[in-house]
Fold this sequence. Notes:
Elements lengths: L6 E10 L2 E11 L4 E6 L5 H8 L5 E8 L2 E2 L5 H6 L2 E4 L11 H11 L6 H11 L2 H4 L10 H13 L5 E5 L7 H16 L3 E6 L2 H7 L2 E6 L2 E7 H6 L1 H7 L4
Parallel strand pairs: 3-8, 3-9, 6-7, 7-8
Antiparallel strand pairs: 1-2, 1-4, 4-5, 9-10
Helix pairs in contact: 3-6
The structure holds adenosine-5'-triphosphate.
Protein name: ABC transporter ATP-binding protein
GO molecular function, one term: ATP binding
Organism: Methyloceanibacter marginalis
Amino acid sequence: MSAEALLSLDSVTACYGRLPVLHDVNLDIKPGEIVALIGANGAGKTTTMMTIFGRPRASQGRIVFHGKDIAQLPTHDIARLGIAQSPEGRRIFPRMTVMENLQMGAIIAGDPDGFDRDLEHVQTLFPVLKERADQRGGTLSGASSRCLAIARALMGQPKLLMLDEPSLGLAPLIVKQIFAAIEELNKDGLTVFLVEQNAYHTLKLADRGYVMVNGRITMSGTGAELLERKEVRAAYLEGD
Ligand code: ATP
């Protein structure tokens, strides 16, 4: 485990019921980095992100954030330490307006007082959220709801933003915009953990990446190094 890491997974194992899904996972994210986790469908990428968030709990190993072992903390405490997650798909509150969704984000992060400051930030990043402030989440387009899911995670100014498949199912132009927004956030100092099947865009953007196969990390390196590896190209970049 690296001493300077913001987040470290140290030999983490996790199960669904009695079914082991993650095996001895070691992974570091340093402050200011974009770190990617790529892998095929069902490899365990989402489970890695969810285990960091305490659902499911790591059955073995340590998860250290800012020097503190968070592996056994309840999810709401993990959120309040500064880890935010934007899950795959349209995981927003569909009956609440855009504004109410963002208010919920601030409450989840335990920082309702910072709402106005964070609102301005996310509305600048995603202007559509200002235009549609009073619209119910469930009536937004796929692209706008993805922006809302990311914006909600940004409320409360997290130290680490974890994004699960932010590009899934979106048109190429929108994917470009989402990746540009992630890059901008990172330039402003936000540390990002990006779980993706879209390996090309992700490795281009990431400082470092890990490849997961059947719940195990099989390769790691800089984004550029992984893009050059023939195993990565053959398995994840075909057609890109
Ligand atoms: P995808 O890109 O399809 O989301 P992934 O790499 O994120 O894939 P996971 O969703 O983490 O993979 O799934 C890893 C394994 O755990 C798969 O075999 C999946 O079927 C299983 N799994 C995922 N969620 C659950 C659950 N809630 N209960 C039981 N098994 C699950």
